[in-house]
Amino acid sequence: MSSIITAAPMSDGNIAIAPLPDSERKPLTKKEIAADHPTWCPGCGDFSVLALYFKLIEKRKLWHEKITTIAGIGCSSRFPYFVQSHGVHYIHGRALPFASGVSLSRPDLHVFVFGGDGDAFSIGGNHFNHTARKNIKLTYVVMDNFVYGLTKKQTSPTSPIGFKSKTDIWGSMDQPINPMKQAIAAGATFVARTTHSNPNHVLQMMEAAMDHDGFGFIECLSECVEFYEGAFDASNPRKGGVFNTVPADHDVTDEIAAYKLADAPFPGYFGLFYKVNRPTKNANEARINAGAMEKVKGLKDWQLLQKTFSRLK
Amino acid sequence: MSEATTVSASTGGAKKISKISDAVIRIAGNSQDGIQAIGGFLARLAGRSKQEVMTFMTIPSTISGGPSIFQVRMGSGEVLSAGDEADMLIAFYQHSYENHMISLKKGGIVLYDSDHVEPRLEWEKEYHHLGVPISGLTVEAIGGTAKDKGKNLYTLGLVAKMFDLDVPKLTNLIAERFAGKDTSVVNNALAAFHAGYSYSLGQVLETYQFVESQKQTGHQVVLNGNEALGYGLIAAGVRFGAGYPITPWSDIMELLRRELPKYGGTFVQCEDEIASISMALGASYAGRVAVTGSSGPGISLKTEALGWGVMAEMPLVVVDVQRGGPSTGLPTNVEQSDLNIAVFGGHGDCPRVVLAPANVEEAFYTAIEAVNIARQYSVPVIILTDQAIATRIEAFPEPDFEKICQDISPDLTPVADHKPYDLAAPNGIARHVAPGTRILSGKYPVATGLEHDEMGHPTGSPKLHMQMVAKRRKKLQALAATLRTPDIYGPPEGNVLLVGWGSTQGPIKEAVDCARAAGDSLSSVHIRYINPLPPDLEKVFAGFNHIFVVEMNDEGLYGYGQLAALLRARFYDPRIRGINKADGLTFKVREIVERARETVATSISKM
């Protein structure tokens, strides 16, 4: 047996000045939160979502290091580069399982995932369903623009029937995915819908999603001015549309009622469709671990392993 | 059976007791007969008797039932392979008898269940036949309600008698195995065993005794390769894993799922292979090296994410328990045909580390080494094991757990400043700080799959791309410089050098012993570091006229297999040729010796 490379210390070196304790730190300013200037086209709806993410961090006094910003691939998925937080730009469609790995192993962090409709409902569709069903504690904001923008106008899974794109020159013919229905059916425990043109509402939904103990999913309509201009005018009062909030008497724990609400034709409703409390996978795993560790209390890891091996003699 | 000493007569003089140093027993039946349990007991007994042991099994890829075999070789000396030929065949059914007689050596013993097997006249002349109505006698011993249950233990009793095995140790093993179950289960098992042990072997002319093992080791542990790998990961400090079920990898994920919670860890069964590697990468990013794994088809699915791991310089351990491919291939058979995907799989220039354990013990230690290389070099490490190591049982000295168990919890101490992809870092090795670490400069890093600058922000700069590509390569070159040239088995100069990797080490070494005993000039070298390769292999090769790479994969378009192709590309040495086979079974010692001789005979003189 050749020699085993031994574990090396991983720290980046000590620092000279002790950092201020959290209690004495000032809330972050927008300037401290912003990183690279976004690469989005002028007028893109994603600017609004980014600005409101900054606002959320400011308002809720989140520290850089306590949040993780994770995205897949797409225009909106450039998000992590624009925020001063630990960030990950992962591969197309797989941001949710990556984020789940972070969430499940680090209860001390809040994990935010940002992405587009292709990431969420096409290449990553399976992960969307399973992250919802596992009820992983994280916040997922899908900036839905009904089109593939980064690759310059192909049909997206949420493109309405008849939408003319470079891959559907006669008009899209596949039934679009309804993100609200998809989320509810998959077992998501927090399902909300908002639009970039109503900033206060976006912030309100983000805060509620962040406070939800579980998989907090928001579909945020976010206009692509380059490839699908005017897509959401019908939801924007400034463009002659209507912004219908979820009726006050809607019971957010009623799955059937939420599903019916999601069935309304565009522009549909905005607000919280569905919210229930079901144990998160994080909590379930922690419970299993607590039980398992109780049984081996007092044993160091190596002693426990040695004990296991005594049965293999 | 290798006879260690000449025959010694027993006191009665009627029966012969032969001292042996080694025996190969093949048990053939159906997969629900519990024949693996017989093999398991024998292997564990060998471990407790300081003997060496190796097993070999086949399982049908059907959901339930189907013919299955378990072969166990135990010996007082070094046991390197599961044995080409069996000394004894235990046949439960006619098909077991007829299909496996070919594996029994001439003059060997066939012990058959005479309730199910009708012996063939022509075979009765060539092999010692011993018919015992195993099914009937088992029912007699423990009652007849449970159809066929218990006959494995009855048979174990017969074997114990025949080989004069340590009965107290065996009964202890049986009791331990059924501990926690209803006492009637233990009692039935022991009753079946004792009934078999008490059966009169009157018609058998000879029984056997193993000579005392000369091994001076302390306690031995007995486990299969998948278990060894799984526990090795736990010893290494891995506390998070994610996977998707696939044979033969599933055992590892089941083990980790069951064991990790005791250590405060988690294993997640994901919706698919891509989610598994993604979740593991997420956990690695979160500060502690995580594991994912699979077998052939699943590895194909994981390659895009693996490329992200290389690009983002994220530590990760990926286990590939190789099986026959391509596509769904031979799910329950062995092959070494994933070397190419392990070393090269994925798009772009994508250097990663590939390690191949050669046996069960190495599977344990390679898991630890993989974790440490992944951490030290911030790179994904693939452990290339295979179905043969996964399922075979071996005994090896109990590891020193206090010494080897590691704590690799993340260090969240604040840092003044941090560049995740610092081009000035020694050997180009990235150092990530885990999320949760405060960075006082206020500049936070992004781990990314886009080509990036030193902070992880995207760049299209030709210069930076070249520098970063070189950085990812240099890390592996730095690792290569730390590796040790593998030892040559046999003399360092001679006619033929056999080069192997992975699970073929045992049969190759035995082939060297066997051929040298017959006067051939043959040595071997075994490569554990597949990527990067260890240094100075050319110096090893220099001592030989012929270099044959023995691999369980196809000879390829140009006459050599996957490691051979890599070595030819590396050393541009036309002496490197292949001894390949891809029949889904492990190499027999005889096959290697014969193929080496043939290949020498047919080779035209070189240079």
Task: Give an overview of the whole structure.
The complex is a heterodimer of chains A (313) and B (607). Chain A has 313 residues and is α/β, with parallel strands linked by helices. Chain A is built from 10 helices and 10 strands. Chain A has helices at residues 30-33, 46-59, 95-105, 117-123, 125-134, 179-186, 199-211, 255-262, 281-295, 301-310, and strands at 67-71, 86-89, 110-116, 138-144, 147-148, 154-155, 190-195, 215-221, 244-245, 269-275. The longest helix of chain A is centred in the C-terminal third of the chain and has 15 residues, at 281-295. Chain B has 4 domains: 2-215, 3-Layer(aba) Sandwich (Pyruvate-ferredoxin Oxidoreductase, domain 3), CATH 3.40.920; 222-404, Thiamin diphosphate (ThDP)-binding fold, Pyr/PP domains (Rossmann fold, 3-Layer(aba) Sandwich), CATH 3.40.50.970; 426-482, no CATH class; 488-602, Rossmann fold (3-Layer(aba) Sandwich). In chain B, strand 2 and strand 3 (16-30) form a beta hairpin. Chain B starts with a strand and ends in a 5-residue tail after the last helix. At the A-B interface, strand 2, helix 3, helix 5, helix 9 and helix 10 of A face helix 1, strand 10, helix 8, helix 10 and helix 11 of B.
Task: Using brief descriptors, characterize the structure shown.
heterodimer; A: 313 residues; alpha/beta; Rossmann fold; two-stranded antiparallel sheet; 10 helices; 32% helix; globular; disordered N terminus; B: 607 residues; Pyruvate-ferredoxin Oxidoreductase, domain 3; 4 domains; seven-stranded mixed sheet
